Structure formats: C-alpha cells, structure tokens
Known about the structure:
single chain, binds pyridoxal-5'-phosphate, about 230 residues, globular, alpha/beta, TIM Barrel
Amino acid sequence: MPDILQRLQSIGQHIEAAESKARRASGSVQLLAVSKTKPAQDVATAYRYGQRRFGESYLQEALHKQRALACFAIEWHFIGPIQSNKTRPIAEHFSWVHSVDRLKIAKRLSEQRPAHLSPLNICLQVNISDEASKSGFKLDELAEMVTAVEDMPNLRLRGVMAIPQPNADPASQGIPYRRLHQAVTALNNPRLDTFSFGMTGDLNAAIAEGSTIVRIGTALFGPRSTSTAT
Ligand SMILES: *Cc1c(COP(=O)(O)O)cnc(C)c1O
C-alpha cells in the first residue's frame, strides 16, 4: 500500500518549489490526481487527505469509480481518448474534459450536456509533437478551433491540454510547452486561462512554461500495470 498522504505532501512541496523557481504565485498550479487503473479505495484515501480533483482516462472504469464514490464531493476530469459514440456519459458525469481533439466531439458534448448542470469545462488537446499517431489539433488550427468552440452553449472553453512525446531530458522537455503557451497567449482571449501541462516525468518543465494543472498519476499512486481497460 503506497503511502498516499506522504506522496501527496511531497508532490505539493514539489509543485510549490517549481512555482517559486519559475517566479509564479504560490497556488497557481493545481494538482489533478490521475487515478486511472487504480482502485476506488486509493481515490478515497487521497480524498480523505484533501485531494478533490481526479482524472480518469477510461470511461467504464471511471463510471464504476464514480458510483462507488458517489457520496464524495469529487471533481471528475476526463483526460482520455474520446470515441464519438461515448460522448453522452462523459457530458453527463464529468466537470472537465481535457481531451477534446475534434470539433465533432465538442459539438456532441455541448448538445449532450444536461441542462441542470453547469457548463462543461473543456480544454482543446493540441498535438505539439507533430506525430501522426497522436491525437489533438495542430497548432495552426488552434485559433479556428477556439472560435468554433468558444460560444457553444453548454461548454466553457478554458484552455489547452498537451501530451508531448516522451522525453527524459529535463533541459528540452519545456520546448513544446513553450511553443503552445506562446500560441495561446498570442490569441489574447481571456477565456483561455488553463494550461493542462505536465505529468510525473516533466512536472518542473511544465510549471516553468506556464502549466496551471499538472496531471499526476505515477508519483501519487505508484506505477500502473499495463492496462486493458477501455
Ligand atoms: C496517465 C496520464 C497521466 C498521468 O501520467 P503519470 O506519468 O503517471 O503521471 C497524465 N495525463 C494523461 C492524459 C494520462 O493519460
């Protein structure tokens, strides 16, 4: 059993140190605890220690955990790949979606967001590694996508999410984030206040380049065995 309290504290300290090093305000970076493949029990433990935001990548697994943890005031974020025939339960059961990578997905989420819920917070996923296999908008499509999505009725466009190609070199990890941050800043759109940048392996670089939400799984819940969940 990993010591989730100790890890939460150490990640919190790590984030604060990175904020300070980047001369950013303390508290400007939020921790999203990525609980994919981990049992509801681990989520409950982190919740008990004060963590409220959790990220999931696999819809069925997420819905199962949400039912098990229904009595907790958790803010659920969907961060995984989205099939267009699965948008309805995502629109119904999450507060945030970081992985909006096609216009069609945004349209469906807006149409399917229940009227009694507040607008769904979304980030546009941008492909900053130019890999054909990775999902996400291209950087040069970003302005057009912001315009297309920002007035959709049941969505609240918040910013961008990126998953760069794995890169173990701390000195160059920040480069793709910097390009995307600059592109968003150039749009000068006050709605875009969220940069969902950074995972366990590139937390410092992401915070140095303006991350406002880091998505941390391994450093908090320990290594994942290869997942077969969908
Ligand atoms: C799994 C996952 C994470 C967490 O990655 P770690 O390296 O375990 O911190 C973050 N973002 C996305 C989109 C993921 O799928």
